[in-house]
Design goal:
The chain is mostly helical. The chain contains nine helices and no strands.
């Protein structure tokens, strides 16, 4: 990873810490780190853009790093706007190219609007950023999330974790991805969860006459 991305990440971590945005404000999800999420979104963007032509990787990767910097411990519905403004202040102070700043800001400002994936011609950079944001915490990570959340409410049976998984990480939903690579990743993740849920149901004897005794 280039040194400037490491510098960006260090700044984002410090900013989130200062503004109380590092940890999830949801008491059931203390394990979720907004900074670690940003690193993983960057990683997903790199995966999706690998070998692709006509992608402004510099703008995409920078937007991925800064896309959630505006998180705090409250009022996070407007975090995308705060994130865009925080990036602008950082970039302007470092005299980045105005055209580059505008492009990255635009990506950050709209990254929460996943319905844009349904629109044609939004550009590869925005497509990959939206897809990367959705791909994180799905699949195996989604299962771990569900189990840890159940632990935090002191669930008293494996079955409760199973049903929580079925309602969340294994719920039926259409593949929201646009790019072929992202669609394949999504399908792989969903297959992983479905396979796990089937094995767990078998181990727990879900549906058998012994289950309800």
């Amino acid at each position: 990873m280039e040194e400037r991305y490491m510098e960006y990440l260090t700044y984002v971590k410090e900013y989130l810490t200062e503004h109380h945005g590092l940890a999830s404000p949801n008491p059931l999800h203390p394990f979720r780190s907004r900074f670690q999420h940003s690193i993983r979104v960057l990683h997903w963007c790199m995966r999706l853009a690998e070998g692709m032509e006509h992608v402004d990787r510099e703008a995409l990767y920078t937007a991925a790093i800064f896309h959630d910097i505006g998180y705090t411990d409250q009022n996070n519905k407007s975090h995308a706007v705060r994130s865009g403004k925080a990036f602008h202040a950082y970039a302007a102070a470092r005299q980045m190219d105005p055209g580059f700043i505008w492009k990255v800001e635009r990506l950050i400002y709209v990254h929460s609007n996943k319905s844009l994936l349904k629109k044609p011609d939004i550009g590869l950079e925005l497509t990959f950023l939206l897809e990367a944001d959705l791909l994180d915490e799905e699949g195996a990570m989604g299962i771990v999330w569900d189990c840890m959340a159940m632990g935090n409410v002191h669930a008293d049976s494996y079955a409760k974790a199973y049903f929580h998984i079925m309602e969340n990480s294994n719920k039926e939903e259409p593949n929201p991805m646009v790019s072929e690579r992202a669609r394949n990743y999504w399908e792989e993740k969903k297959k992983t969860v479905a396979c796990f849920a089937d094995l767990l149901a078998e181990d727990l004897m879900i549906g058998s006459r012994y289950f309800d005794i």
